[in-house]
Design brief:
This protein is of the alpha+beta class. The chain is built from eleven helices and twelve strands. It is globular, with a radius of gyration of 18 Å. The termini are far apart.
């Protein structure tokens, strides 16, 4: 590690002011950023910790029936407090990383980083969630802009994520065993007006919606509806030592069928 300044604001306004200074970077749970600093892949001179901001923590159900989760809420808290209203999301959170990661990592940090193999992006995109920041509200369909790329601007902090609660949902993850990241992860959410299917871990473009599966499942919400579909095009899928693009494309179809079968 190298020397840097650490500030711990207790309000969003204080955090935004600190982030306005030159070479400052936000620190949420630190589960991605700290290893990045150790490898010198990033070298900010000031870290602005968001862990002391109480107003961006917590889980509650809104008056319009959505699940609101503060950006500073840990995965472990989501796993416990979302179970009654949104078990599909709670079970996703319960299987992020290991206990140490779940007790430090936050939903806002995960969505801000937008790792191509992270789980939360699939939940946000798969439900049509709204990402609220200190400046504005961003629809999930507009928020994710490619691998590690989002619509966030400088000094913009995720304060809350609002999830429309589906009638049925499930997340299935084919894990890379060493990291517990998703080699492929699929989130399926059924609503009265249709079905959304979001895939993480597979594409060179990051998280994406599988529109053919959405159309088929909106007409017939069963694993049989997926059986007749061709797997997504493997040519733009990630190909590495863990699996080829075509292999990942095949796993997308398998995980989607499993998610539909397990949805409740």
């Amino acid at each position: 590690m190298y020397n840097f300044d650490l500030v711990r604001p207790t309000s969003i306004d204080e955090a935004v002011k600190a982030l306005g200074e030159e070479d400052a970077q936000p620190l949420a749970g630190g589960q991605t950023l700290i290893p990045t600093l150790k490898q010198r892949l990033a070298m900010p001179t000031k870290l602005v910790s968001l862990t002391g901001i109480a107003e961006i923590k917590g889980v509650c159900k809104t008056d319009d029936g959505q699940l609101a989760i503060g950006g500073g809420t840990t995965h472990g808290t989501v796993a416990k407090e979302a179970m009654a209203d949104f078990p599909g999301l709670a079970n996703l959170a319960a299987n992020v990383g290991d206990p140490a990661v779940r007790n430090r990592g936050t939903i806002g940090g995960s969505l801000a980083n937008n790792d191509p193999s992270a789980c939360y992006p699939a939940a946000a995109l798969g439900t049509g969630a709204t990402i609220k920041t200190n400046k504005r509200e961003i629809a999930a369909d507009d928020y994710f802009q490619g691998m590690f790329a989002t619509a966030l601007e400088e000094a913009e902090i995720i304060t809350e994520v609002r999830f429309p609660i589906p009638e049925k949902s499930n997340y299935q993850k084919f894990e890379q065993q060493a990291s517990r990241f998703a080699l492929v992860g699929v989130f399926v959410a059924k609503y009265a007006d249709g079905v959304r299917v979001a895939v993480t871990g597979a594409s060179n473009e990051g998280v994406f919606r599988w529109s053919e599966a959405e159309s088929a499942l909106s007409s017939n919400f069963s694993a049989d509806a997926i059986e007749s579909l061709s797997a997504p095009d493997g040519s733009n899928m990630i190909s590495d030592l863990h699996g080829s693009g075509d292999y990942r494309a095949h796993i997308v179809k398998v995980m989607t069928k499993r998610a539909v079968a397990a949805a409740s």
